[in-house]
């Protein structure tokens, strides 16, 4: 054992010098080893753009959407570890024309990693040719259409409407990009699932016809990938008024019988017309002074009391009369008589006695637009239900120029539109 130890430590000074020299040689050799590899998706940043110019596809962080695959040659130790997160290409647009070839040398590479000095690491850069295109920087107002929300309303409530249904977004960007966006318009779709029942319950007051949920600011952001990599806040002042209107989910009885009328298409008037076709009385339909009237008790659901009081005398069922050979059952729909006049009366009623305090926030012209939009939303959801709260389905047939109206089981699917 002592002989082994003695052998190890014999000539120790020479051995130490040899070890130090070996380490130095390894370090020098390692530092001088050259490697070449391709780094994919390296970001590009353009600096010193003229104030009136911008680049197509530039992002908020100054990078272009376009990225490059760079082949770099340099110190093997560092090159082998480099990624696209460690560097970017920086091009100077000073005194450049609107279109110029991108030229890259190692001087155009900027380190995003403070621990790496690219000027000492990279010897040569190869890249695919590309063109940088500058365009005019302009300011435009882009229309935003607020679409019908997705999702479901909280339990006990029904979605009525959303208002305003059109906003404007003021943005700066490339002229051609903004032109395309303006022609196409943008879409913003809200999600009813994000509205909590507790929020509507807190807003629900007996005297209010409609519960208006004003959307929070973070909902009024829109993604425009061609302009920004982050959502853009809508700066239209009317965005503060953006609301989702809900109505309580409740059934109300109709206090008046509903007249039934016939519509005869012009192309079949020679055979089918008021002189040749008649409505047959049944358990559902009675005739009063020659006018067919649907006399079964009916309900409506999710309509404001002011709207219902105004229109319940003006509801009718219209049957479209066409030859039996073209359609086994006749189509029918629920409609209002003179809806324009009823709409005007609805608006005037609210202007005379404003019950909903939220409407007071609106300027007169916006108030009228909002109320007309609410009225039309009610009209679109006007459906008839039976007393057991199932949807009214009618089977209407034409045989030997006699129209018969019968009730159909709600579970049966109709092949023609009904109760629309």
Q: If you had to describe this structure to a student in words, what would you say it looks like?
A:
With 420 residues, this protein is an alpha+beta fold. It has three domains: 34-129, no CATH class; 139-248; 251-407, no CATH class. The chain has helices spanning 2-9, 12-32, 76-79, 118-121, 175-184, 197-203, 305-311, 339-352, 364-380, and strands at 34-47, 53-55, 63-75, 87-92, 99-101, 109-111, 122-126, 131-146, 157-163, 166-174, 186-188, 211-214, 221-222, 232-233, 243-248, 251-253, 258-263, 278-279, 285-288, 291-294, 299-301, 315-320, 332-336, 394-399, 402-407. The protein has a five-stranded mixed beta sheet with strand order 6-4-1-3-7. Strands 2, 5, 8, 10 and 11 form a five-stranded mixed beta sheet that branches. The termini are far apart. Residues 413-417 have low confidence and may be disordered.
A few lines on this structure:
This protein is α+β, with helices and mostly antiparallel strands and 420 residues long. It has 9 helices and 25 strands.
Which labels suit this protein?
about 425 residues; 3 domains; alpha+beta; transmembrane helix; c-di-AMP_regulator; transmembrane; 25 strands; membrane; 5-stranded mixed sheet
């Amino acid at each position: 054992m002592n002989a082994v130890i003695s052998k190890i430590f014999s000539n120790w000074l020479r051995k130490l010098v040899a070890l130090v020299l070996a380490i130095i040689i390894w370090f020098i050799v390692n530092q001088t080893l050259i490697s070449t590899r391709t780094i994919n998706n390296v970001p590009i940043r353009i600096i010193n753009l003229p104030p009136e110019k911008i680049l197509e596809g530039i992002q908020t962080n100054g990078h272009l959407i376009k990225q490059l695959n760079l082949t770099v040659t340099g110190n093997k130790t560092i090159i082998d570890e480099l990624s696209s997160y460690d560097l970017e290409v920086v091009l100077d647009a000073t005194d450049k024309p609107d279109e110029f070839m991108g030229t890259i040398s190692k001087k155009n590479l900027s380190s995003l990693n403070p621990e790496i000095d690219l000027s000492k690491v990279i010897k040569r850069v190869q890249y695919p040719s590309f063109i940088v295109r500058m365009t005019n920087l302009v300011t435009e107002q882009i229309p935003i259409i607020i679409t019908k929300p997705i999702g479901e309303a909280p339990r006990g409530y029904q979605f009525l409407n959303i208002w305003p249904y059109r906003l404007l977004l003021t943005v700066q960007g490339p002229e051609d990009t903004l032109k395309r966006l303006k022609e196409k318009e943008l879409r913003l779709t809200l999600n009813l699932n994000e509205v909590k029942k507790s929020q509507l319950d807190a807003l629900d007051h007996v005297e209010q016809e409609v519960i208006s949920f004003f959307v929070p600011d973070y909902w009024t952001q829109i993604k425009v990938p061609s302009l920004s990599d982050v959502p853009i806040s809508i700066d239209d002042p009317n965005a503060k008024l953006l609301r989702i209107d809900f109505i309580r989910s409740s059934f109300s009885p109709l206090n008046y019988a509903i007249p039934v009328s016939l519509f005869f298409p012009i192309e079949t008037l020679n055979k089918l017309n008021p002189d040749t076709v008649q409505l047959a009385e049944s358990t559902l339909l009675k005739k009063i002074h020659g006018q067919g009237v649907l006399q079964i008790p009916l309900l409506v659901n999710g309509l404001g009391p002011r709207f219902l009081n105004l229109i319940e005398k003006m509801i009718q069922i219209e049957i479209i009369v066409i030859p039996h050979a073209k359609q086994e059952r006749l189509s029918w729909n629920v409609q209002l008589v003179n809806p324009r006049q009823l709409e005007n009366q609805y608006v005037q009623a609210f202007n005379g006695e404003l019950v909903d305090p939220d409407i007071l926030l609106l300027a007169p012209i916006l108030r009228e637009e909002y109320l007309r939009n609410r009225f039309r939303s009610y009209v679109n959801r006007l459906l008839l239900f039976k007393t057991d709260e199932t949807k009214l389905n009618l089977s209407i047939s034409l045989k030997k120029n006699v129209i018969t109206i019968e009730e159909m089981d709600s579970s049966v699917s109709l092949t023609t539109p009904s109760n629309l």
